[in-house]
Amino acid sequence: MSVSYPDHRRSPVRVFLSAVAAAALGAATLVGCSSQEGPEGSVDAFLAGWRSGDLQPVGFVDPTGAKVPAAEVVKEIKDLSGELAATPPALNRSGDAKVTKNLATAGYRVEWTLPGNVKWAYDRQLKLRRGGDDKWQVIWEPALVHEQLEAGERMALVRDRATRGGVLDAAGQPIVAPRKVVEVGIQPNQVPDVPDLVAKLDAAFKAIRPALTPPVDLADLPKRIASADPGAFVSVVTLRDDAYRQIRSRIRPLPGTQFRSSERELAPTREFARALLGSVDEATADDLKAAPDRLRQGDLVGHGGLQGRYDERLGGTPGLTVTVRRTNPDGKSEPAGKDLFAVEPKAGEPVKTTLDVAAQNAADAALRGEPKRSALVAVRVSDGAVLAVSNGPGPAGQNLAFDAQVPPGSTFKMVSALGLLDRGAVTLDGKVNCPKNFSVEGRSFKNSENFELGSVPFRTDFAKSCNTAFAFLAPELGPDGLAETGRSLGLEAKWDLGVDAFTGKVSTGGSKAERAAAAFGQGTTVVSPLAMAAATAGVARGRWEQPKLVLDPAPAKPAAPGPELKPASLTALRTMMREVVTAGTAKALSDVPGGPVSGKTGTAEYDNDPKHLHSWFVGWQGDIAFAVFVEQGGSSAVSAVPISERFLRGLAAAR
């Protein structure tokens, strides 16, 4: 028996089946849309995987259509990238892909960041093919990394060192320039008697004048010879050509010696402002670690002084070439004759200073025979230009002339006297007693070698350097008067020279005994030779100005000039400083050529033993002010003053 329904009515079963069919059709339509999506997803996945090293989500085929494993593509990209592999490029798709039936092309930009933050960018085209499963596959070929790359090739970096800029003197001439050196070495299998060779080399090196600092240490040379390959070159020392020529006839005939000539960036002499200039040497492990993007093994780097401070400016920017190398069947790498990118080296910029060659040579010569640590600074009075910065024995990088923090001793009577004159506490011919001893709060002060002058004019107290007279006058300066006067001469100011320098620390406040000691440069007052040379120049000029050393690049924030000094006080102080030379403690300078010399001697106790003394002299002649310091030098008459005399005579001979 059958049941029929009118045409406008539908069976419930038929309605259900229709709904199922509609749902199935809708599902089929969604799957079809997914298979018809563009290739951009595969492009983006490839670019992301290149950077991350994970290309598993991407399908690859070669130009013939054969499948290529994703892991193989990762390896090829790394191999092709060569020396650039450690820093993958930034990769960005350029717009939408262009589709023609089952093939597509998409542009992308490759941007490498090379050493030194150099940017290298170029555009490439990616080809894709739609596979049988409707998925877009990348057509892999080496040209995707760079259009000129082929299988078996790799990118390599070639650095071209920049020409190093020079440190220039006041005349604009390079102080540091390429100069000939000779490296002395030993070939082990040519040495019949090692102890004899070492002894003769040691004697020869010690005969070089001026003496090598530090001396050549040959203690481990026998061990190095014994452990080296028989035909090796065992380096002993590298000498300037002038030093080598002094001993050439002594060491060249010695069995086993070998010699290699080359050039290095050097100053005119070994001593020439060595601590101020610094040195230029091959990059150390610490240098390479500190600046891995800028430096490579074998690069020249400035160490210490101006060379270190301005190393990046002087060093310039190396050139860089991205080239291609090919691996031969025998496994050896050779140039493929293709350069992909190049940046020319940029030469370093010079650093111009105020140093004067004649003054510097005279300063170096004056300290040459001094066995103790010492320093000499010369400053032009008219404009504050630093003409010479010399340091005696000690580590090559130690700039005692700028960095020392030591008591000034009686040279500070120049500052104390100016303060007393400004306050009307003394006059040139006013009598001030100079006893053998003077006590303040139970602390006894005395003069060098226990001399006494009695009641004499203040100018005599100054010329003869009477400590007890200044200790007696200390209350006239008040608790801060000495510091105020010192600051008017640039002490304690914040200077900007283009290199670090200690500008002094002047005693202020404190007990009456401390103020008495400070009045003649003891107590807690400490200075550097540069600070005292600049203060002396201020007295000679009539107004303190910050010294100038680096002219280009010009320091950004030099200290402002000090106040105009009182003319009456200056006249009296200059008179007394002249009498130090004509009738006081620096008579040895009374007959030096070049004009009248004015100045002040000083000895400074540096501990509680009165026999332990630093030696000082500050002064000026014509337009040149200077300061001489000798650590543990004792009496200024036997150390600082003779050095000053040698300096002034040397300067006069050079004019």
From TrEMBL:
<dbReference type="InterPro" id="IPR001460">
    <property type="entry name" value="PCN-bd_Tpept"/>
</dbReference>
<dbReference type="Pfam" id="PF05223">
    <property type="entry name" value="MecA_N"/>
</dbReference>
<comment type="similarity">
    <text>Belongs to the transpeptidase family.</text>
</comment>
<dbReference type="InterPro" id="IPR012338">
    <property type="entry name" value="Beta-lactam/transpept-like"/>
</dbReference>
<dbReference type="GO" id="GO:0071555">
    <property type="term" value="P:cell wall organization"/>
</dbReference>
<feature type="domain" description="Penicillin-binding protein transpeptidase">
    <location>
        <begin position="376"/>
        <end position="641"/>
    </location>
</feature>
<keyword id="KW-0132">Cell division</keyword>
<dbReference type="Pfam" id="PF03717">
    <property type="entry name" value="PBP_dimer"/>
</dbReference>
<dbReference type="InterPro" id="IPR007887">
    <property type="entry name" value="MecA_N"/>
</dbReference>
<dbReference type="GO" id="GO:0046677">
    <property type="term" value="P:response to antibiotic"/>
</dbReference>
<keyword id="KW-0472">Membrane</keyword>
<dbReference type="InterPro" id="IPR036138">
    <property type="entry name" value="PBP_dimer_sf"/>
</dbReference>
<dbReference type="GO" id="GO:0005886">
    <property type="term" value="C:plasma membrane"/>
</dbReference>
<dbReference type="InterPro" id="IPR050515">
    <property type="entry name" value="Beta-lactam/transpept"/>
</dbReference>
<feature type="domain" description="NTF2-like N-terminal transpeptidase">
    <location>
        <begin position="39"/>
        <end position="152"/>
    </location>
</feature>
<dbReference type="GO" id="GO:0008658">
    <property type="term" value="F:penicillin binding"/>
</dbReference>
<keyword id="KW-0131">Cell cycle</keyword>
<dbReference type="GO" id="GO:0071972">
    <property type="term" value="F:peptidoglycan L,D-transpeptidase activity"/>
</dbReference>
<protein>
    <submittedName>
        <fullName>Cell division protein FtsI/penicillin-binding protein 2</fullName>
    </submittedName>
</protein>
<dbReference type="GO" id="GO:0051301">
    <property type="term" value="P:cell division"/>
</dbReference>
<feature type="domain" description="Penicillin-binding protein dimerisation">
    <location>
        <begin position="161"/>
        <end position="323"/>
    </location>
</feature>
<dbReference type="Pfam" id="PF00905">
    <property type="entry name" value="Transpeptidase"/>
</dbReference>
<dbReference type="InterPro" id="IPR005311">
    <property type="entry name" value="PBP_dimer"/>
</dbReference>
